[in-house]
């Protein structure tokens, strides 16, 4: 029976590319999304047309500590992992990709500020707390080391090529990605005892906003040493594909940067 992968934020952009790649690799996939209903539905239909009953979607918010229905984030994450086991009877790979990203300047974020307190919760929740809760739920269900080794169970967290450098005015995002980097390293050591590998992929510039003027696209591209272009979704997904493959069975606690050398220019 083919393996199963859960990808958060899978309906668009990098998450979609990862879902397509892992499905091509033979995985059955659970595609988490929050607001991209049409995109998620279309992707599920596309994948199931290629291989019947190989893809399902799961809608949930990973943004704030408490959703509108009052269900805490930890319980929403537990429910998502439980859905995977209920639907496919197994889960082999968890890809924590969902991420909120927008400016949160220190003095402008919080109650009575330009951005209210939920902005901080949303960004830290999606970038750090949700990956923690999902990883915990996954590890709690997969406690047999020999079985985990046999099925090469692993977690991939999508960080940022610039995690080591602060991003001006993106305080909460920077904090979230630093926390996620810490989760990769800490959980890699802890979960090695039950043979669950934990790694990261750090994309650089990719999927430049369509509303951004073309001249600004060129400015960003000019900063990238290799080829002066942004990364494609397929290139980022290929790094994930490698880390979850049998070729990476001795790789844990590391992050692969897919940024064309961009982070080296800002060290």
Automatic annotation (TrEMBL):
List of catalytic residues: 173 (proton acceptor)
SUPFAM superfamilies to which the protein is assigned, alphabetical: NAD(P)-binding Rossmann-fold domains
Origin: domain of life: Eukaryota
UniProt keyword Oxidoreductase present: yes
Molecular function as annotated in GO: oxidoreductase activity
Keyword annotations: Oxidoreductase
Family per record: Belongs to the short-chain dehydrogenases/reductases (SDR) family.
PANTHER family, per the entry: OXIDOREDUCTASE, SHORT-CHAIN DEHYDROGENASE/REDUCTASE FAMILY (AFU_ORTHOLOGUE AFUA_5G02870), SHORT-CHAIN DEHYDROGENASE_REDUCTASE FAMILY PROTEIN
Designated name of the protein: Pteridine reductase
């Amino acid at each position: 029976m083919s393996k199963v992968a859960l990808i958060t934020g899978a309906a668009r952009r990098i998450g979609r590319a990862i879902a397509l790649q892992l499905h091509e690799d033979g995985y059955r996939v659970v595609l988490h999304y929050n607001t991209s209903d049409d995109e998620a539905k279309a992707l599920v239909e596309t994948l199931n047309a290629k291989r019947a009953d190989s893809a399902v979607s799961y809608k949930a918010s990973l943004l704030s500590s408490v959703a509108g229905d009052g269900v805490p984030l930890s319980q929403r994450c537990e429910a998502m992992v439980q859905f995977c086991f209920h639907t496919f009877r197994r889960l082999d790979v968890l890809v924590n990709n969902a991420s909120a990203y927008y400016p949160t300047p220190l003095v402008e974020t919080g109650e009575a500020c330009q951005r209210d307190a939920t902005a901080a919760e949303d960004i830290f929740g999606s970038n750090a707390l949700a990956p923690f809760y999902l990883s915990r739920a996954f590890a709690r269900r997969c406690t047999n080391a020999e079985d985990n080794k046999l099925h090469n169970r692993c977690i991939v967290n999508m960080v940022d090529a610039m995690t080591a450098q602060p991003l001006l005015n993106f305080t909460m995002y920077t904090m979230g990605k630093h926390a996620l980097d810490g989760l990769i390293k800490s959980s890699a050591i802890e979960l090695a005892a039950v043979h669950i590998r934990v790694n990261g992929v750090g994309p650089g510039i990719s999927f430049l906003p369509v509303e951004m003027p073309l001249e600004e696209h060129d400015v960003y591209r000019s900063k990238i040493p290799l080829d002066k272009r942004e990364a494609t979704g397929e290139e980022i997904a290929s790094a994930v594909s490698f880390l979850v493959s049998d070729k990476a069975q001795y790789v844990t606690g590391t992050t692969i940067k897919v940024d064309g050398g961009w982070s080296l220019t800002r060290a």
